[in-house]
Specification:
The protein is α+β, with helices and mostly antiparallel strands. Helix content is 18%, strand content 33%. Belongs to the copine family.
């Protein structure tokens, strides 16, 4: 497909809690044989139901001439406890086609439907495969094994080669490939990776590959691993060359200039041949560990979330002295601006040690000359626009209203650019020390849309996110353009945003909900945006967590 479906995608109005990611491993038994000369060449497609339609999410590799395949491909899905996530696995005979998308009924070897919840609850699901119209596909079955990615903290890149392997072919040299298995606590083995085949070579160099640390060793350095070298056979009857056992702890000796090697042993030869040494040597040329940090890693490392609020003071809000105005101060009930400000600000203040918030206004004539300003401090202190806590912002807002004249137009690009300049200074420190959230509260569609798009594209390269809350009953359709959920936001010149950093929400959808519902919705994307930015810049958390034996594999919960 041109765009894989997003697993368990949640609507902006009702964000779901991703409990974890789940890895799915697939194998089949007794597949139907569709080929006359050789056995079927199976491939598995994973589909997920979205709005009543089945969408292809991912597919496995093709395994040649094998009716009992164990696929090396690991499918990863997001697991939402509160949502029924329907999955469908379809097995096809590829016939060596470049793609499986152009198959007909003769290629279909069977399908199986289940839910993510079922797989997670049972850990291992084995079901029969069905053809069209509910007909059994003979004795064919499919097994899906699930594993929760908990404490997953990155992946490892491995580069293997072998030397002087046994020659299993009469008229040419062996065609070796390598499989890596993880040995689980019950003694069973899980295929972690299968390399490509290197043709006609007894000293092959396989392509480097990446696997998650969770997949390789369950984030346990001492867990037993088994490597197996085979001589490839096009009919699926691969010849066993030899095996070796190791651990991730031992593998790590290959970092830098060092290399680690193992004798590739055939147990049968070892028993029969008195002078048997090995069936070749397997060498780990290089190992690189890539840490993947979480939002908590950055926060616990000392990263501060700096919160700025920008309030719309354009005339369309109505005279603040009139009870119909969106800025009317009712002594018994806060207006929508205050409700949105408090709901979002109270969450953000927990991540800001000094509890000081920048508070800006736009679209008003301000004293002393009563000229229109699009980025003024609502405490009227141009040298320090910060207020003490959320309550300080509320007090500055209330005391500011009688002193200004609501005017226009609704230009927000100046404020985005102002926060972006501060964020750019922070970026130059090359540390994950401060991330900026700009909350814009407005009652209408922005007037300077072209400049705003340009400012957002520039800001997407900086440590900042933008939350826009639409206050009142205006038509905010055009504002959805700024929220990249429906496509990629571009500048007027066509340059796309580096990251999706804008979240737009109309406040009226939360009028009757609790304040926490609004905060949950508008802040749901922030942790991901923080991690995306620092990952793009390759900035690690400032203060690494205290070292424990497995600290390079575990992450804070």
């Amino acid at each position: 497909p041109s765009r894989p479906a997003t697993m368990g995608e949640a609507s902006p109005q009702a964000p779901l809690a991703v409990l974890s990611k789940v890895e799915l491993r697939v194998s089949c038994k007794h597949l139907l044989d569709r080929d006359t000369l050789n056995k079927s060449d199976p491939c598995v497609l994973l589909l997920m139901q979205s709005q009543g339609q089945w969408m292809e999410v991912d597919r496995s590799e093709v395994i040649k001439s094998n009716l009992n395949p164990v696929f090396a491909k690991i499918f990863t899905v997001d697991y939402y406890f509160e949502e029924v996530q329907k999955l469908r696995f379809e097995v096809y005979d590829s016939h060596g086609h470049a793609g499986v998308g152009t198959h007909d009924d003769d290629d279909f070897l069977g399908g199986m439907e289940c839910t993510v919840g079922q797989i997670v609850a049972q850990k291992r699901v084995t079901k029969p495969l069905f053809l069209k119209y509910g007909k059994f596909a003979g004795k064919s079955s499919i097994t899906v094994i699930s594993e929760e990615i908990s404490g997953n903290n990155g992946y490892v890149e491995l580069a293997f080669r072998a030397k002087k392997l046994d020659d299993k072919d009469l008229f040419s040299k062996s065609d070796p490939f390598l499989e890596i298995y993880r040995v689980d606590d019950d003694g069973s083995e899980q295929l972690v990776y299968r390399t490509e085949v290197v043709k006609n070579n007894l000293s092959p160099i396989w392509e480097p590959f990446k696997v998650s640390l969770n997949s390789l060793c369950s984030c346990e350095e001492k867990r037993k691993l088994r490597g197996v070298v085979w001589d490839y056979d096009s009919r699926g009857k691969h010849d066993f060359i030899g095996e070796f056992f190791t651990t991730f702890e031992e593998m790590q000796k290959a970092m830098g200039e060092n290399k680690v090697q193992w004798d590739c042993l055939n147990p049968k030869y070892k028993l029969k041949k008195r002078n048997y040494k090995n069936s070749g040597v397997v060498v780990l040329l290089d190992l690189k560990i890539h840490r993947v940090y979480s939002f908590l890693d950055y926060i616990m490392g000392g990263c501060q979330i700096h919160f700025t609020v920008a309030i719309d003071f354009t005339a369309s809000n109505g005279d603040p002295r009139n009870s119909c105005s969106l800025h009317y101060i009712n002594p018994y009930q806060p207006n929508e601006y205050l409700k949105a400000l408090v709901a979002v600000g109270e969450i953000c203040q927990d991540y800001d040690s000094d509890k000081k918030f920048s508070a800006l206004g736009f679209g008003a004539r301000i004293p002393p000359k009563y000229e229109v300003s699009h980025d003024f401090a609502i405490n009227f202190n141009p040298d320090n626009d910060e207020c003490e806590g959320i309550q300080g912002v509320v007090e500055s807002y209330q005391s500011c209203l009688p002193k200004i004249q609501l005017y226009g137009p609704t230009n927000v690009a100046p404020i985005i650019s102002k926060v972006a300049r501060v964020a750019a200074d922070e970026e130059r420190t090359k540390e994950a020390s401060q991330y900026f959230i700009l909350l814009i509260l407005t009652d209408g569609v922005v007037t300077d849309m072209a400049d705003t798009r340009e400012a957002i594209v520039r800001a997407s390269y900086l440590p900042m996110s933008i939350i826009i809350v639409g206050v009142g009953n205006a038509d905010f359709t055009d504002m959805q353009i700024l929220d990249g959920d429906d496509g990629v936001l571009r500048s007027p010149k066509g340059e796309p945003v580096l990251r999706d950093i804008v979240q737009f929400v109309p406040f009226r959808e939360f009028k009757n909900a609790s304040p926490t519902a609004l905060a949950k919705c508008v802040l749901a994307e922030v942790p991901k945006q923080v991690v995306e930015y620092y990952s793009y810049k390759a900035f690690p958390p400032r203060c690494p967590q205290p070292h424990t034996p497995d600290s390079n594999l575990g992450s804070p919960q």
